[in-house]
Amino acid sequence: MMKKIERLISIVMILLQKEIVSASELSRLFNVSKRTIQRDMESLSYANIPVYAEYGPDGGYGLMNEYKFDKRLL
């Protein structure tokens, strides 16, 4: 089973590649609940990684564009 820190790093890598990723997609990918994904997003936010949520049928999570351009942070 993947550890939380590995999952968080993987989520950031995915968000660097895609504009928006739904909680459902992430929960399926990592075999965890949507609530776990929500907690992961909170953890990333506490770590000063600028994640944001878009609500609605096409919603999901994304990274602020400024962060995407500064990939040397990883």
Strand order of the largest sheet: 1-2
How much is the average pLDDT?
Answer: 90
**Largest β-sheet summary:** 2 strands, antiparallel
Poorly predicted segments: none
Number of helices: 4
Molecular shape: globular
Q: End-to-end distance, in Å? A: 23 Å
Structural class: mainly alpha
Instruction: State which percent range the strand residues make up.
Output: 5-15%
By DSSP, the count of extended strands is 2
* Radius of gyration of CA atoms, rounded to a whole number: 11 Å
List the helices and strands and how they pair.
Layout: H1 4-17, H2 23-30, H3 34-46, E1 51-54, E2 60-63, H4 65-69
Antiparallel strand pairs: 1-2
Helix pairs in contact: 1-3, 2-3
Task: Describe this protein's structure.
The chain has 74 residues and is mainly alpha-helical. It is 54% helix and 11% strand. It is built from four helices and two strands. The chain has helices at residues 4-17, 23-30, 34-46, 65-69, and strands spanning 51-54, 60-63. A two-stranded antiparallel ribbon has the order 1-2. Strand 1 and strand 2 (60-63) form a beta hairpin. The radius of gyration is 11 Å and the shape is globular. The N and C termini lie far apart (23 Å).
Compact description:
The chain has 74 residues and is mostly helical. Helices cover 54% and strands 11% of the residues. The chain has a two-stranded antiparallel ribbon.
Supply database-style keywords.
74 residues, mainly alpha, globular
